[in-house]
Amino acid sequence: MGLHLTPIKRVKTISKKDFFENYVQKQKPVVVEQLTSEWPAYEKWKLEYIKQIAGDKEVPLYDDRPVSYKDGFNEAHAKMKMSDYIDLLLSKPTNYRIFLYNLMKEVPSLNKDFHWPNIGLRLVKQLPMLFFGGENSRVFMHYDIDYSNILHFHFHGKKRCILFAPDQTKYLYKVPHALISREDIDFDNPDFEKWPALKQAQGLICELNHGEMLYMPEGYWHYMHYVTPGFSMSLRAFPRKISNLAKAAYNVFIMRHYDNYMRKRKGQAWIDWKNDEAIRRTHQELNIA
Q1: Which of these, 59, 144, 140, lies nearest to 106 by C-alpha position?
Q2: In angstroms, rounded to a whole number, what is the distance separating the alpha carbons of residues 208 and 152?
Q3: How many CA atoms lie within 13 A of 208 on its CB side?
Q4: Which pTM was predicted?
Q5: Contact, 139 vs 223, CB < 8 A?
Q6: Does an H or E element contain 152, and which?
Q7: Alpha-carbon dihedral of residues 83, 96, 225, 276, nearest 10 degrees?
Q8: Which residues have C-beta within 8 Å of that of residue 211, sequence separation ≥ 6?
Q9: Would you tell me how many other CB atoms lie within 10 Å of the CB of residue 134?
Q10: 215 and 128 Cβ atoms separated by less than 8 Å
């Protein structure tokens, strides 16, 4: 028995009116299969192309090691030339990922390869972010610090995405003073003996192929599994709900600074306490012994 996951609705194309009224206003995910079909990126954006035009750039890398008090908020674990990193991706599985990286700032010509979609969201033009991962690498379950509406485009291969709406948070073993669930949960094959609350969670799933776009509404939890090596681009629009704007401001201006302060003050004991609290609070709220 696995998680309760419903396939995310897929459409080939979508009008601005349909997208806004049926997905943005209702805060429902959707996969649009052909939104990028007329972009130069649809033909060009393969790993070999990125290596060709950005191979000399030094890029920050992250792996799946547990959070440590020694690491700052979203601090990179390693650095590598992009050419060497792409050679690694294409040669064998690796846990090294590129996370939330503005490669367009480093290589402005990439901006000519895609069009900002006129789809009913006021997208933030300064924030086209890229994400890279190797075969079988995973991005732990989390939600975004700014509660943005996200258009997530995938290129070169296949990626599996599991989403949970914000109202499912109580089942996900959320770590306090953080944006993540317990990192030792395998959302591909969860241990319900250890994590019984997950049996009650109702989630969504899709597999993104080259050129497809997944819309993730404000505050949605997401877990990513790179089935093959590949990369994605996220375009973002600020939250439309006032309550989510307030949560985003709290996360950016208070929560992350408090968490960094406590890591420095208490060290690993702070991380261990947060992980223990994730279980205690979840089970207490759901009356799980």
Answers
A1: 59
A2: 9
A3: 33
A4: 0.94
A5: yes
A6: strand 149-155
A7: -160
A8: 33, 34, 35, 36, 37, 39, 41, 42, 153, 154, 155
A9: 20
A10: no
Of 139, 110, 132, nearest to 39 by C-alpha is 110
Q: Report the residue count for the chain.
A: 289
Of residues 58, 66, 130, the one with CA closest to residue 99: 130
Q: Which helix (H) or strand (E) holds 268?
A: helix 268-285
Contact 52, 83 (CB under 8 A): no
Radius of gyration of the chain (CA): 19
Q: How far apart, in whole angstroms, are the C-alpha atoms of residue 197 and residue 185?
A: 12
Contacts of 201 (CB under 8 A, 6+ apart): 3, 4, 164, 168, 171, 172
What single letter denotes the amino acid at residue 87? D
The H or E element spanning position 10 is: strand 10-11
CB 198 within 8 A of CB 171: yes
Contact 129, 33 (CB under 8 A): no
Structure token pair of residue 5: 């996951």
Structural contact between residues 186 and 282, judged by C-beta atoms closer than 8 angstroms: no
- The DSSP output letter for 109 is G
For residue range 190-243, list pLDDT tens digits in order.
Answer: 999 999 999 999 999 999 999 999 999 999 999 999 999 999 999 999 999 999
